[in-house]
Specification:
It comes from Antrihabitans stalactiti. By secondary structure, the protein is an alpha/beta fold. It is 50% helix and 12% strand. Strand 3, helix 5 (94-107) and strand 4 form a beta-alpha-beta unit.
């Protein structure tokens, strides 16, 4: 199946009244398992690629070219399962966004997600996120829309405004991005079932929801999300968390140690396994240097 056919296949799935479940993929085996289990779509998790591919926390350290090459491999392994790709902030301003869209489109992805965080971004379920303005992100969206050569490539606009600005501001941004032409809207990290429902009621666009184990958003059932009208539910941490748990418990047994002190229960604790605390100390060192 060609990339264009996979994009059309994803658009057909999204037109269904049922929510499309997209598990997180980050390496070859996770992609092959998603294909073998015949999911309608897969989601390339930036956090999973950072941690599994590069041993890094999801704080904007992985480059565009590294992500594109991982996407290219995942597309190949997934076969006829369409891939939704996390492209972070687009890796810069409008010109960088144009190149990002071109590169991901060339890699064969069916959809690309861009977010309104300032660079360097952070995992959506970590604190202290910084945003660019609504107008600045709309310009990046316009550049992305102009850059695609296949109109069936789905552009997903993600807003991280819920944390720093509140749910009302996040919904306002979501509707502005939909009005600018985004095919789908992703309001990151709603807190509580009431906010999940409010987004569904107040955002006038197809919606994606991110269900992270131990994250800020409650894990809603596919039935509930279908009833609310969500188009896509991504589960980026489920395969990654299961793999990390199995490796940690197996290795602890080999080492004769108790794995419990290292078992993560939140995204921040998971990223501590790949050095978040050390990178945070470095960031603080350079933030305060010269003060």
């Amino acid at each position: 199946m060609t990339a264009h056919e996979n994009r059309q296949r994803l658009r057909t799935a999204l037109a269904s009244t049922d929510v499309t479940v997209a598990p997180g993929v980050f390496d070859g085996i996770s992609a092959h398992l998603v294909r073998l289990l015949e999911f309608a779509a897969a989601y390339m998790t930036g956090a999973g690629v950072a941690a599994s591919g590069f041993g890094l926390p999801d704080i904007g350290l992985v480059t565009q070219t590294e992500m594109v090459e991982r996407a290219r491999m995942l597309v190949s392994a997934l076969g006829d399962v369409p891939l939704i790709a996390d492209a972070d902030t687009g890796y810069g301003a409008e010109l960088s966004v144009i190149r990002t869209v071109r590169e991901f489109e060339s890699a064969g992805v069916a959809a690309i997600q861009l977010e309104d965080q300032a660079f360097p971004k952070k995992c959506g379920h970590l604190p202290d996120k910084e945003l660019i303005s609504t107008d600045a992100f709309v310009k990046k969206l316009e550049a992305a829309l102009d850059a695609r050569t296949d109109s069936d490539l789905i552009l997903i606009a993600r807003t991280d405004a819920r944390g720093p600005l509140g749910i009302a501001a996040a919904i306002d941004r979501a509707n502005a991005y939909a009005a600018a032409g985004a095919d789908m809207i992703f309001v990151e990290a709603p807190q509580g079932a009431d906010e999940v429902e409010r987004i569904a009621n107040e955002v006038s666009a197809p919606l994606l929801i991110n269900l992270v184990i131990g994250g800020l958003t409650p894990i809603e059932s596919s039935t509930r999300l279908t009833d609310l009208g969500y188009a896509v539910a991504i589960h980026p941490s489920l395969p990654l968390g299961a793999a990390a748990f199995a490796m940690l418990t197996g290795l602890a047994g080999l080492a004769g140690r108790d794995p419990a002190p290292l078992l993560p229960s939140t995204p921040a604790e998971f990223f501590d396994l790949v050095g978040l605390a050390e990178w945070s100390e470095l960031a603080e060192l350079y933030r305060t240097k010269g003060e």
